Amino acid sequence: MKGRKVPRGRCRIGRGGGDATAGRTGREAAGLRSNVQRDWKQFLAYMSKRDGGVEIAPRGASEDDTRKVYKSRLFEVTKDGEIIVERPDQSVLDHAFRIGDTIELLLVVNNQRMLGDCELLEVEARQINRATRVTCFKLGAAKRVRIDQRRLFFRVGTAGADMGTIGLLAEGKEIEDEIRGRMVNLGGGGMGVSIRAHRDVLREVQGNTRYRCRLEIKSENEVVDLDTTLVHLSPLDTTGLYLGLRFELPAGKEGKALESRLVQYGAWLQRQQLKRRRA
After folding, report:
1. CA distance 86 to 92
2. Measured on CA atoms in the order 61, 67, 73, 76, is the torsion positive or negative?
3. For residue 120, what are the CA distances in angstroms to 55, 100, 143, 163, 262?
4. Number of H helices and number of E strands within the chain?
5. Residue 199: Cβ within 10 Å count
6. pTM for the full model?
7. Are 15 and 62 a contacting pair, CB within 8 Å?
């Protein structure tokens, strides 16, 4: 039985991750579980060869838990199935991970997201090169794996597009305190923004949860101001931060119209990137 592909575009499954075996016969359910496990191993192998970016969180944490979803890197999968990931920067950790804890490990390849529950076995140091030594988490092989699609809207990565800068103004701040960032992904429900700035500015960013963002919709040559809530925050080495922001759109027809414009803008960005790749 062939594995089911996760469709592109909008997809909504329960926040805890979709149970693809629900309503299946015993044989069908076993086949689907086997396919999910196979895909998980393929994702791990693919990402470990590239020191791929992953996300980790305490079991049960959702993307709405602002300080409990952390960016990390996947370094290695051992022959025994143990998974070596970089420990998140201590300066942004708002959760104390302990040996024996169950950690949710999120892998994303293209628009497919897989979530695995892994036990934290050990904290160890790892030598990346002659000059760099990092602290890592050693995780056990996943005890449970499932397909995860938490967002209502598929997010379009914009890293390959010339997006210019985004203005972010923290709630209660004056316009001269606006921070400049770069949009790296966009969907109808939110966007990801990277900020490179002095440490004092980064500390200021970590103390705020609501921002007014000034975004240029280049397909319309128009600038819009969007109220956002910080959903998760992760370090980009020692000089930057990644902010996952959720749009707080107006109620009623106005909000629906703006949501539609943002989705269309995301589709426009995707087409621009495809044109660049084919050129």
Report:
1. 14
2. negative
3. 14, 5, 12, 39, 39
4. 3, 14
5. 10
6. 0.47
7. yes
* Residues 33, 211: Cα–Cα separation, whole Å: 41
Q: Convert the pLDDT of each residue in 14-37 to its tens digit.
A: 233 444 444 444 444 444 456 788
Can you give the pLDDT at residue 16?
38
d(CA 218, CA 265): 8
Contact by Cβ (8 Å): 178, 169: yes
Contact status, residue 167 vs residue 214, Cβ threshold 8 Å: yes
Per-residue confidence (pLDDT) for residue 170, from 0 to 100: 87
Q: Hey, which residues does 192 pair with through a beta bridge?
A: 185, 244
Count other Cβ atoms within 10 Å, centred on residue 188.
Answer: 22
- C-alpha 116/C-alpha 104 separation (Å) is 6
Distance CA 151, CA 145 (A): 18
Taking the mean position of all CA atoms in its chain, how far away is CA 238? 19
